[in-house]
Design a protein that fits this description.
Number of helices: 17
Strand content: 15-25%
Number of strands: 14
Mean pLDDT: 89
Structural class: alpha/beta
Largest sheet: 8 strands, mixed
Shape: globular
Distance between the termini: 57 Å
Helix content: 40-55%
Length: about 475
């Protein structure tokens, strides 16, 4: 038991201040103590450089974070089982065309059964938007618009299994598949981070795409990373979301040393170090090769934190070849000081960073941007309304989502999105047709506006139907 306690501790010497939540240590009685006492001393479930937290609202948010993580840890297996059942049922229907054909095929003994590892198997998220082809009207010569469209399709594909991704990249996109990888989380002691590499190479360009998988609906580990309000303050950088850093490869007891220390307990490599080493090898093959980083939801957070550690380690080659970071529905990852640091470094190294937000998507509006949580967005925010009209904005509307004044407009917007799901195939073309499963998701959005707006469908549509003018300023500024 003493050895296990030691493994949970982390030497925070790499950070100037910190607040680390430990839901595995919390007991039912402890949850209510934190609401009524500002002291953080001698509490196993909160490790903080500060001895007290004065704000009741801050204690309330810590309470919510711990409860959410504890609940997710408790329900991890049932959630995973439920997700598997739903995915198997959706694929059973899809492989046999529809419910009635499934019944007929079962009677005839010819029903096609899903195989989770096959290229035909589609994830829960993939069933909302089954498009596999890139938009042929958007060409590599279109610069940032092409990269944004390709990056979003890669972000969508990242939710699928290895065989599916390889088939899509090779057969549909006619690009080079460079591998799909699972990565270890030292703090959750399991592989929680997934990503894949592809290479888009022609006579005119050679671009590697690194796509991080986002939060899957029934993945309790990924949701724990989202709800974890832990943070570390790195010297001269600012405060950074702890859950996302752990998912990227923060080493327990070490932080972010330049090299990865071997650990016999790890069954998979840490994400940051593996990606860095693989990119070094790929980029050394040609001086013309560049790369972009991308991800949807949690994947977007990991995509923008990757260059953060490159700055920290002064990785000159990788920073020189990084052409851009494209994130979709990305949550906030740090405080105001961190945002200023990143904007300065991105400008210094001439790295484009586009953060796409569709309409009332709730995820980019979390964690809160207020005096208690202090999280702030940075970079170029490209905001799209429900008509897929995009514009660059300094701040997205309704920045903290939960606002009584915006509740009714958001619900009205959700109604319009549901109506649009029946008409968009006629107004925009058959490739924009929405199926019954996504419409069901949009109905849920009537009750919880902002949930259905996080779907990959709306982000793919935004990159295809939105104006290319949103990229003009960035392309004028950089060579």
């Amino acid at each position: 038991m003493e050895g296990q306690a030691e493994t949970r501790e982390c030497d925070k010497g790499f950070s100037s201040s910190y607040m680390i939540l430990k839901p595995e240590e919390v007991k039912f009685v402890d949850l209510f103590r934190i609401l009524f006492s500002s002291s953080l001393e001698n509490r196993k479930y909160v490790d903080s450089s500060a001895e007290t937290t004065e704000s009741f609202r801050q204690r309330w948010l810590i309470f919510i974070s711990l409860v959410a993580q504890k609940f997710l840890m408790f329900t991890a297996r049932p959630m995973s089982w439920m997700g598997s059942v739903i995915e198997m049922w959706l694929n059973l229907l899809s492989l046999n065309q529809n419910f009635f054909m499934l019944i007929i095929n079962l009677i005839r003994g010819k029903a096609e059964k899903p195989d989770k590892d096959s290229a035909k198997f589609i994830s829960f998220i993939g069933n909302m938007d089954k498009r596999t082809k890139l938009d042929s009207s958007i060409k590599p010569g279109d610069g940032c618009r092409y990269h944004s469209a390709l990056a979003m399709m890669a972000s969508k594909a990242s939710y699928e299994n290895r065989a599916y991704i390889e088939t899509i990249v090779k057969d549909h996109w006619k690009m080079e598949y460079l591998g799909f990888y699972d990565h270890w989380n030292d703090y959750q002691e399991k592989a929680t981070t997934q990503l894949f590499f592809l290479r888009d190479k022609t006579d005119d360009h050679d671009t590697i795409v690194v796509a991080f998988r986002g939060t899957e609906p029934f993945d309790a580990d990924a949701w724990c990373s989202d709800f974890d309000l832990s943070w570390y303050e790195l010297p001269n950088m600012g405060k950074i979301h702890g859950g996302f850093m752990k998912a990227l490869g923060l080493q327990k007891n070490l932080g972010w040393p330049t090299e990865c220390k071997e650990d016999e307990n790890r069954k998979e490599p840490l994400a940051y170090y593996y990606i860095r080493d693989k990119l070094r090898a790929l980029l050394s093959e040609s001086e013309k090769t560049k790369y972009i980083l991308t991800g949807h939801s949690l994947g977007g957070a990991l995509a923008i934190l990757f260059p953060t550690i490159l700055f920290h380690h002064e990785e000159k080659l990788l920073l020189q070849r990084l052409e851009g970071v494209y994130t979709y529905g990305q949550p906030r990852v740090g405080d105001e000081n961190f945002g200023k640091y990143m904007e300065s470094k991105l400008e210094e190294h001439k790295i484009r960073y586009f953060r796409f937000v569709y309409c009332n998507d709730m995820v980019p509006r979390l964690p809160y941007d207020d005096k208690d949580l202090l999280f702030k967005h940075f970079g170029t925010c490209v905001y799209y309304n429900r008509h897929y009209q995009g514009k660059v904005v300094p701040e997205m509307p309704n920045k903290n989502y939960f606002s009584p004044l915006s509740a009714v407009p958001m619900m009205m917007n959700a109604v319009c999105e549901l109506i649009r799901s029946f008409t968009i195939r006629y107004s925009k073309g058959p490739e924009y047709k929405e199926g019954w499963f996504l419409r069901l998701f949009r109905i849920i959005g009537l009750v919880m506006p902002g949930v259905s707006a996080h779907s990959t469908q709306d982000y793919v549509n935004s990159t295809r139907l939105g104006s290319a003018d949103v990229f003009l300023l960035s392309e004028d500024m950089l060579p």
